[in-house]
Each structure stands twice: as structure tokens, then as C-alpha cells.
Amino acid sequence: MILGAMIFYPGGEHLASWRLPGAQPERYLDVGYYRDFARTAERGGFATLFIADELYVWDRFASGIDHVVNIRTEPFTLLGALSQVSEQIGLAATVSTTYNEPYHVARKLASLDFLSSGRAGWNVVTSASDEEAWNFGRDANLDHAVRYRRAAEFIDVVNGLWDSWDDDAFRYDKESGYFADASKLHRLDHRGEFFTVRGPLNIARPPQGRPVLFQAGASEAGRALAGATAEAVFTLDGGGIRGAQALYDDYKRRAAANGRNPDHLKVLPALSPIVGETQREADEYLDLIESLTPDRLSLDWLSHYLHFDVSSHPMDEKFQPDLSVPTNQVKSVYEQIRRVVGEGTFTLREVNRAMLRRRFLAGTPDRIADWMTERFTGGAADGFMLAFSSIPVGVEQFVELVVPELRKRGVYTGEYRGATHRENLGLPEPSSRYA
Ligand SMILES: Cc1cc2nc3c(=O)[nH]c(=O)nc-3n(C[C@H](O)[C@H](O)[C@H](O)COP(=O)(O)O)c2cc1C
């Protein structure tokens, strides 16, 4: 079983996580906070530390500023620092292919791979919010299909740039004065729909050949891209094991259809555990999260994902919106809300609560380990991307209490099997296209 540890909001997975007991909001821009997280995750044998990212402050609604953690360090700068204070864990962060240029990204990732001795990774996202568009010269986000075409070309260019130098291109020969061998340098000369990149890249081929490529797109276009290019996907399976198995099979089938070994596309459902000594204690923690979330924030969060304003709707009255029009934003979250709303007649508060209960798995260490084991052995997951409800408490509890249970069940060793991120994920090292 592969485990990853992610940070979306610095305080944990929920908008209100920063208010939970043990949260340390004054440390969210402090490298020591992330160093501690990395070291705890390493104690648990986690293959990947993943920093999620967005390129905006969530100010569409005033509640976003009042109540939400809108500050974060630029993730690759942070990972550069973490590469020096961690030893084994893979270091990955989100890259928007809509608001970056491939040359920048290829260079940054290759640098991190050198700084960390082969532990770099990137999570390709296409960026869904208009707020992001407004920071990069656009009035609105690009169309979903265009974003994904751009992402595919982006990945192709980055992979090409990483192959600029053959592994034995450098001679460092002081005597003759030859630093490098020009015959071992390759110019990309890429001209496509979105990018024109001559190359070559001004850094050697990364230690891993290519830093590990993660993705989390859930739509048809997102899955198609993952099947063609991703080495690990983070999924949101929406609940039952059957759905998770179907999703797992879908990704594996897509990899095979692209002529790839399906085992080289790892499927890692996102999992947000809440660990309690008893089931009751875990459930009460969920109630606590709910009680720490102001109503106006819950309403605005729903408005954001539904892309229409629900804030004037009373929390305790029936909520039955028309959700038949597809969104240009995050389709998967929209779909989840649509499913909840379609399951019966609910008030807004009840819809909110149902979404909260779907997002977290609350239970004893035993129950959480059983749940994970069932999915892992039942062909529904190669591992999990853990999004803790609170940091640092959630990750510490998981490592102390759940990891031993997983070990006991023989599904997780908790040990690093190799030196590089790829080796620890069970992925092969790609050779250069010129090899
Ligand atoms: C575990 C996980 C992590 C994600 N991290 C990010 C992120 O850091 N930044 C981002 O913009 N989107 C992130 N997403 C959203 C996805 O990249 C994707 O946009 C979303 O699932 C919608 O899918 P679609 O683009 O195929 O419609 C994440 C999703 C999941 C499940």
C-alpha cells in the first residue's frame, strides 16, 4: 500500500481546520511547521508529501476573507527548503498548466529533483476558478476542454525539455577545456497549439529522468489525460467501494489503452481520516468541525461550487436547485453536490452535513485500517492520499495509531523500499527519448 500525505489548506482539509484544538495558525508561513509535518510523515513511511496549491485569494465572498486561510507559501520554494530537512519522503506540489510556461516548470522541477536527490514530483492541474484567471490577464477561465488540451501539450513539452541533455553529456574536462559534449545536447524545437519552445533546458536531465507526474482530474478530459500521461492519480470516489472499484478499473483500462503498463498508473483515492479512541469520539469531532464553520461560510462554499448564489437561502429550509446545467468549474465537486441533492429532500444544512460526512472517514484506528485494507485488497486502490482534518494533530494520530494497524494487517510495511520518489511508489525510471 502506498501512502501520501497532503496539505491543501495549511491547517488541514476543512475550511475551519485552523480553529481546531492543536492547530497552529500563526506558523502557517514558518518552514519549521512543514519540516515537522515532513518528519512525522517520514516516520510513517509515507512515499509522498504533496502540497496542493491555488493561485488566488478566495475573495468572491466576504466570508472567504473573514474566515478562510488564504495565505500559503509558494510550494516549490517550500519544497526546496524541505529537501534539506527531510531524508526520504517524495516532495510534490501542484502546478497549474493554465497559468505557467513549460520552460519555467521543467527547470523548477529538475532543480528540485537535484536538490532532493531524486525525490521531486508534480501534480498537474488545469485550474478551475475565475479568480485565478483574473490574476493572469483573463476575464474568465479558459474553457474546460481548452484547458485540458493545453495541459496535454504542456506535459509533452516539459518531458521533452527534461531530455535536453544526455546523461553522459558532461565531461568537466579542465585539461581540454570541454565542459560538455555538444553532440549530446538536444534542441526540442516544439511548435504546437499553445507553446513554441526551442529549448534546450539549462539544467541536466533530472536524477529520476522525470520527476513523478501526479494528476487529479475527474472529468472525462481529466481521466483521458491521466490515462495517457499520469503516473499516479488522486481520486474522489464519492463513497461506496463499488464506485471506487469502477473508478480504479477505469484508470487502469485507460492506461492499458494507451499502451502503458496499468501498474505504472497508481490510483490513490483521497482519504480524510478522523481518528477517535471510540467511534463516538470520532463522530463528535466531526460535529465540532461543523460547529466551527460559520453558516455564511458554508453557504458561500456551496455557492462557489454550484456557481450560483445560494446565500439568501435559509439554512433550515428545503433546498432543491436546478442542477441540470453543467459547470465550467470543478465538475467533480458539483457532481457530488448534485448526487446529495438528488437523494432526497433536504435543507441546506442537511446538504452541508451530508457533504461533510462524505468528505471524512470518522472512526477508530481499527475501523479506518479495515476500511483502507478492504479497498486495497479489493481492487479499489493502490494506496491513499491522506488529507488530514487537522494538522499537526491528524497526521501524528494517524502515524501513531493507524499505521501500526495497517502493519498488523500485512498491507503496509511503513518502510522505504528505495532512495527515489519513483522507487518508493513502485514506478520505473523512464529513459530519455534519445537513448
Ligand atoms: C486529492 C486532490 C488534490 C487536488 N489538488 C488540487 C490543487 O492543488 N489545485 C487545484 O487547482 N486543484 C486540485 N484538485 C482538483 C483537481 O485537479 C481537478 O481540477 C478536479 O478534481 C476537477 O476535475 P476536472 O478538472 O477533471 O473537472 C485536487 C483534487 C483532488 C482529489
Automatic annotation (TrEMBL):
The family this protein is said to belong to: Belongs to the NtaA/SnaA/DszA monooxygenase family.
NCBIfam families: FMN_nitrolo
Sorted UniProt keywords: Flavoprotein, FMN, Monooxygenase, Oxidoreductase
A Pfam family this chain is assigned to: Bac_luciferase
Upper lineage: Bacteria, Bacillati, Actinomycetota, Actinomycetes, Cryptosporangiales
Domain Luciferase-like: 29-380
Positions annotated to bind FMN: D53, T94, H144, Y148, S219
KW Oxidoreductase (keyword) present: yes
Top-level taxon of the source organism: Bacteria
Organism: Cryptosporangium aurantiacum
Name of the protein: FMN-dependent oxidoreductase, nitrilotriacetate monooxygenase family
PANTHER family in the record: ALKANESULFONATE MONOOXYGENASE-RELATED, C2H2 FINGER DOMAIN TRANSCRIPTION FACTOR (EUROFUNG)-RELATED
InterPro entries: Diverse_substr_monoxygenases (IPR051260), Luciferase-like_dom (IPR011251), Luciferase-like_sf (IPR036661), NTA_MOA (IPR016215)
GO function terms (MF aspect): monooxygenase activity; oxidoreductase activity, acting on paired donors, with incorporation or reduction of molecular oxygen
